[in-house]
Amino acid sequence: MKAVICTKYGPPEVLELTEMEKPVPKSDQVLINVKATAVTASDCIIRGFKMPGDHKFPLKQIMGLMMRVAIGFTKPRNPLGMVLAGEIESVGQDVKRFKKGDQVYAFTGYSMGAYAEYACLSEKDSTRGCLAIKPSNMSYEQAAAVTYGGVLAIHFLKKGNIQNGESMLIYGASGSIGTTAIQLAKCYDAQITAVCSSKNFELVKSLGADKVIDYTKKDSINMLETYDFVLDAVGKNKSSELKVQCKKALKPDGRYVSVDDGNVKLSSAYLVELREFIEAGKVTVAIDRRYPLEEIVEAHRYVDQGHKKGNVVITL
Predict the structure, then answer these.
(1) Hey, where are the domains in the chain?
(2) What is the average pLDDT across 284-307?
(3) pTM for the full model?
């Protein structure tokens, strides 16, 4: 099968399309014929071995060691890729939830492996992945694209205990997580202020943002109000004076949540909940660009620029 491996940690050019043996599912696993995947921020962090934020010694060294133990010391052990959508080709003898022919989508977690024509995943949730039937009203490309931002948006909205009718600010509203968080927050009748560049105003407004702030403008800080809930959807890899002030723009009982706040416990329940929102017409997906697997290097170069609108999809 075709697969993309990371020959070492580094820039996009370390990615290489190669031939690998088709995997064989274990008794509790399913074999998925991957139809689409996506290039996520996490893929780029792993490929470049970039620790989020400005961690100082010894925290940065400890985090780096933990990452090498989990993923690989000199390079990732498995092909990259954390999200996928495809069709189940075969199932292990102990699998109960899925059958051959099921159309599924998945978050592969630490096991990665989605940049390949085939991938094996356990039907049981763990740090190495979660799996569910894909939304019936989405293509494989759309389902793969929505998975990363959808799972993380649901997780962090729950972490922030979003309530009906609250005022909410989303910093990084035009990315994978932000575009989904806007739509999910509108399901709670939230009044949303979206922070992004002016070129993405039309996109975030179409998804439900009530107000917009251009983080590139000098007077953007003056546009801040106070909010019940502030979601930092970009994390510590990006910073600005406005972002610092967003953390302080809270009402007395307001909550601030960053996507860097702790590890996400992967759960197929998130995928099921996301599917219900999608099939009810409450959540759609923003796709910026599409690339074939053979152009994975170009896709990573584009995502590394940090200006994608929504999601970048890889087709197989």
Answers:
(1) 2-148+263-315, 149-258
(2) 96
(3) 0.92
